[in-house]
Design brief:
Elements (H helix, E strand, L loop, with lengths): L1 H9 L17 E9 L2 E9 L22 H6 L15 H4 L6 H15 L4 H4 L18 E2 L9 E6 L12 E6 L8 H10 L11 E3 L5 E3 L2 H14 L11 H13 L20
Antiparallel strand pairs: 1-2, 3-4, 4-5, 6-7
């Protein structure tokens, strides 16, 4: 078992608990012997539901799911089709566990607002029925050019914003991928682009209602999820608003490298200053 733990640690799947971390639960760890084609192998088992009442799964809200039935598989058959079976070794490494739809969308919206200095009106709408494809971001406004070095970047075309100056009709903002970063905005937006059932003219950031229907991300949902995450991180959620990303991103950029004074005809960036 020790060898398996070391292997998982080397792959980055296991980290040591730091003294200042708040432990949220305990998981039982075991190992089972398995024989396949005359070869005995040992398989580690991580049971997040045990011990009861203190297991990791006891600390989270689980969405009940069920496997597809034989009847479901039969309904997919058509004349001329062939059936195949694929057995994946350590499938969880090649088939990631799906995060909740809302968390994926709001996380991408948060990173977009921070790194692009966007207002909350750029990533969400006051009410779902107030969304307008001519004034709000749609999926077609996002593209992913590939750089010569092989890294990806994301370009977002802003077609309507009160911060667009110097008579510009459109404004394109750009970010370059940061491999390995958990807060890479390029990777977060790439995941948004992979979500199904969203056409090119649909909202860039959207959520699901109780019936699974898609609707634009609203201010209330965006701020509510943000404050929930802030509280989870030990921060005072009342101290943050939807504009905290714009202010925080601008402050971080200023501290890294103050912008030069704008020349004639260039947009005025005098607002780019640290918070008091």
């Amino acid at each position: 078992m020790q060898a398996e733990i070391l292997k998982e640690k080397a792959a980055g799947n296991v980290v040591e608990v730091r003294m200042h971390w708040k432990v949220q639960g305990i998981s039982a760890v075991g190992i089972v012997e398995r024989e396949r084609k005359g070869v005995i192998k040992f398989r580690p088992v991580w049971d997040y539901s045990r011990p009861e009442d203190v297991g990791v799964n006891s600390r989270i809200d689980l969405v009940k799911e069920k496997f597809a039935s034989v009847k479901d598989a039969y309904s997919l058959l058509r004349p001329g089709l062939w059936m195949a079976k694929v057995d994946l070794t350590a499938a969880y490494r090649s088939v990631p566990v799906a995060a909740r739809f809302l968390e994926i969308v709001v996380f991408a919206a948060m990173l977009t607002a921070f790194f692009f200095f966007f207002r909350k009106d750029n990533v969400s709408v006051e009410k779902a029925d107030a969304w307008n494809p001519r004034g709000h971001l749609v999926r077609a406004d996002m593209s992913f050019p590939v750089l010569e070095e092989g890294a990806r970047q994301v370009d977002i075309r802003v077609r309507h914003s009160k911060t667009i100056q110097a008579g510009e009709r459109y404004h394109t903002v750009r970010a370059v991928e940061v491999p390995g970063s958990p807060i890479c905005v390029v990777r977060a937006l790439w995941r948004i682009g992979q979500l199904p059932n969203l056409g090119p003219d649909g909202p860039l950031f959207c959520t699901e209602d109780a019936k699974g229907r898609l609707k634009p991300l609203t201010h209330s949902v965006f701020v509510a999820v943000f404050r929930k995450l802030a509280a989870r991180a030990g921060l005072d959620p009342a101290a943050y608003t939807g504009h905290s990303f714009r202010r925080g991103g601008a402050t971080a950029a200023f501290r890294l490298q103050p912008p030069p004074a704008p020349s004639r005809g260039e947009p005025d960036r005098s607002w780019l200053k640290p918070e008091a």
